[in-house]
Amino acid sequence: MPRLPNLWRGSIVAKLVLGYGLLGIATIAAVSAVFYSGTIGVLDQNIDGKIITQSERLLESAGDGKYPSLEAEVKRQLSDGIDSDREILQLFDAAGARSAGNLGAWPGTGDDDEMLTTTVTRNGRSAPARLYLRPLDGGGVLIVGRDLSEEEAVRDVIWRALLAGVCVSLMLTVGGAMLFRRSIEGRLGDIRRTAAQIEAGDLSPRIPVTGNDEFALLNRDINRMLDRIELLMDGIRHVSNAIAHDLRTPLSRIRGRLDDALRHDMTVPRLSGAAHDAIDDIDDLIRLFERLLQIAEAESGMRARLFERLDLGRVVADIGEMYEATAEDSGITLTVDAPDALFVDGDRNLLASAVASLLDNAIKYAGPGAAIRVRAGLHQGLASIAVHDNGPGIPECERGNVTQRFYRLDKSRHMPGNGLGLSIVGATATSHGGALVLEDAAPGLIARIVLPLAPG
Amino acid sequence: MMENRVRCLVIEDEAETSNYICKGLREAGYLVTAAATGPDGLDYATSEDWDIIILDRMLPGRIDGLSIVDKLRALGKQTPVIIVSALTTIDARVTGLRGGADDYLSKPFAFSELLARVEALLRRSAPGADSTQLQVADLKLDLRTLRVTRGAKVITLQPREYRLLEYLMRNENQVVTRTMLLESVWDYHFDPQTNVIDVQISRLRAKVDKDFPVMLIHTLRGVGYRMGATPPDDMEPPHA
Fold first, then answer.
1. Minimal Cα–Cα distance from A269 to chain B, Å?
2. Which CATH architecture is the domain A214-300 placed in?
């Protein structure tokens, strides 16, 4: 597997990390820009404003606006001791010669009405300055400016702070992204390792669940799904074994009988007897297949469109009546308690078959002398059919198993049956949106089918 | 058997099954014609008059069993139709019956079951004497008063036993299978795992046949029951 080259291209984590990194950087840039324009930008603007105001004031206070009075005013301002370390004033006459002012070297030319930033020499040292060149009526230029040394120092500090801030943020972003990535990959790794083990054929491992975050929820969901799959796989394995066994036995019996009939004295009664027996055995096999199909059909849940509104009480009463004689013959008292008008949507024959199966089981396993009571009614807001016997019941630990296909309690293996009865009942209940519940009746068993009531 | 021999059409593509059905029906005294494809079957079914049609649901040649039934009914022919099919789900059965078939039998089936159902259908479609009393030998059932007597003795029956007896008597000398009884008398269609029907029959037998020299309800091994004064050839001694 080419891991490294694709690590960043194919990885959603990498993409997420990269995305968040870029977003972080963009945020930092935006914050920096706002901060910068809020500090240095404002500073710069203030300076320009101040310079212009000062120049206006100067010209105003020069009174007649004539050159000499302007010169005097410049000199006065320069010597008034106010702001003297920052203010720059310089006057050039019409010929371009320096007149009053504190500007040392003046590199610039031009006499446009302009604002410029340059380096000047002032009081014997060079300094950055912001200058306003103002041409005067009748020739000459007035330069009003400010020494920017202090501002530059502030600007430097701000720049450095911004730079440091950006560096630290970037490091935090990258570091955080890597931590994020590692943590997500760690969590994903748990899932992938489990998946690999399962793929290798071991269905037992589960994803470790820690905490209560989204991954924990996802892992719990996956684990539940795995539990279900494992159960189904067990079921299938069990069914295959059981089919292998349940088919092999009658098939070898049929084969043996026919073979035996052919090899020994082939009299007509003998042959016809063998044929009859073979047909009986094959009929049993067909029945077994039909029941398996019936489970598959019920489990696939494809039948709902054939459902009709029916009176469950009526069905229970009919089937109960059908079994009364059978129960009596087995020395069992069967009481049927099925009031009318318990309406559900379902398949009448399937439900009848389910009730018959439960009664069959009860009669078969409760044994002579037992009392069986079948009742239809409401149970916790659902339609319910309960078959209650006072026989030996089913041990609690076995109750989940008996609804599995082909499962038979050890003590009932000698009895006729194929271990499909309760699984069909369960599948039927499920396909009707209900459930088969086995409860302890102490003594005995309550097998209960609950179904949703018909709406309306 | 009836004077006019029953004309029967079998539409089935699988040669062995077709032979099995045709041979059995001929042995029962029917005139049998076989068709092996959908179009052939449709031709036969619509161009001649039949007493009964037995057809496979899945046929080669783009016309399946259900569409043959469809066309037949569209032509206004009420010929009884039995579908035999390997599609055994209840779903398939319901669509088959809703599609106009009169009965639905899943493969594999016992021939006796098929024959019993064919005969029941033939009898249903035959114009019956609109009698108010059924009688088999000295057993009488009055349909108006619901009174059942055998000889001079009045027999008291539960409602369900009465319906069971009525069905058996209406099908005098005909084989009825357990599933047919479950369908007709109880109006349910499923495969009861135990011998509930047998128990019901033996109850009825205890009331109807016990203490009388002539048995009227006979058990046919692996098939079902038959009501009549003469025992069938392949008869088991009654369980009761």
1. 13
2. Orthogonal Bundle (1.10)
